Amino acid sequence: MSVDEFDPFIERAFDRTPPMPDTALFVADLDARLQSGARFRAVGLGIAGAIGGVVALREMLTLDMDLGGAEALPGVDAAQAAGQSINLDVASALQAALERWGVADLALGGLGSMQMFWIAAAAVAALALAGVVRLSQDV
Amino acid sequence: MTQPGLSDRHDVELAALAAASDRRAFGELVRRHSSTVRALLRRMGAQPSLADDIAQDAFILAYERCTEFRGEGTFAAWVKRIAARLYLKRREKEARYVSEDSAEDQVSSVDPLGRFDLDAALQTLSEAERLCVSLGHGAGMTHPEIAAALNLPLGTVKSHVKRGLDKLRQILNPGAGETGRDSHVG
């Protein structure tokens, strides 16, 4: 067999692999890994979303209350007063819930809400960067 | 993971479905090509259990990056390259560098019916020759790519491939002798 014939012959020999007897098991294992990975990602995203939601809600309520305090002047219309009252109710409910979970003082330990927000944002960005670096190292 | 009709689809179609997170389509691709990928890793020198682990990692990575597969080459070749690179990374981590060990004893690589047994033939090559031939002719990597992946000079890689192929040719056709020509890969 000449060199010209031999190179493609070897390439074909590499490609011509009989199916392995445990292929079904291999496929099932892989599917299980893909499934658990997807579940893990969904749970992670859910937790991150919940934390982000709580921080955002807390931030919004704080802002509303501050605005409400500044505008508590004679002439404030009834609708705004009602809205403020609802906001206060929600705020106290949220505060109670946070106290029950023991995280009520999270933003009060010398850090403001905006600082907390930026710290959380930096942590998420760092995590994303670490993920990208790891992926790039994989291949 | 089986879905009626998937077995009739082309790899490119299945890859497009997998890119849209269709795990059953990806399962069909795995079913079609896992044996080739696992065999390649074993031929590169990985123990069967390690080869299977790396093949799984390669397919998971391929699933996550399915959008990057544009059908320019075959899906099997794409996954084989991923798997080969993962295996080389693992070797690097375990500090198993390509050694210039001598070839193992000659074993019969042609069965009584005259069929060529690639696995047995590869066993007669040195580790470096086996790796270079497998990367070039099994994973479809070019010589410069192999040199970069193995951190070896390009000339060394070419020598390993040439010597490896010459040995394989001798096994297949004992009377042929060495021709002194380079292989076409790269």
Structural class of chain A: mainly alpha
The main pleated sheet of chain B reads as: none
What gyration radius of chain A follows from the Cα positions, in whole Å? Answer: 29 Å
Distance between the termini of chain B: 38 Å
Backbone CA Rg of chain B = 18 Å
Q: Give the overall shape of chain A, derived from the CA principal axes.
A: elongated
How many β strands of chain B by DSSP?
Answer: 0
Low-confidence stretches of chain A: none
Structure description:
The complex is a heterodimer of chains A (139) and B (186). Chain A is 80% helix and 0% strand. Chain A is mostly helical and 139 residues long. Among the domains of chain A are: 75-106, no CATH class; 109-138. Chain A is built from 4 helices and no strands. Chain A has helices at 3-15, 23-70, 78-101, 113-138. In chain A, helix 2 (23-70) crosses helix 3 and helix 2 runs antiparallel to helix 4. With 186 residues, chain B is an all-alpha fold. Chain B folds into 2 domains: 8-98, RNA polymerase sigma factor, region 2, helix turn helix motif (Rna Polymerase Sigma Factor, Chain: A, Orthogonal Bundle), CATH 1.10.1740.10; 108-186, Winged helix-like DNA-binding domain superfamily/Winged helix DNA-binding domain (Arc Repressor Mutant, subunit A, Orthogonal Bundle). In chain B, 60% of the residues lie in helices and 0% in strands. Chain B contains 8 helices and no strands. Chain B is elongated. The chains are: A mainly alpha (139), B mainly alpha (186). The interface between A and B is large, with 30 and 43 residues.
Secondary-structure map with pairings?
The complex is a heterodimer of chains A (139) and B (186).
Chain A: H1 3-15, H2 23-70, H3 78-101, H4 113-138
Helix pairs in contact in A: 2-3, 2-4
Chain B: H1 11-19, H2 23-44, H3 48-64, H4 75-93, H5 118-122, H6 127-138, H7 143-150, H8 154-172
Helix pairs in contact in B: 1-2, 2-3, 2-4, 3-4, 6-8, 7-8
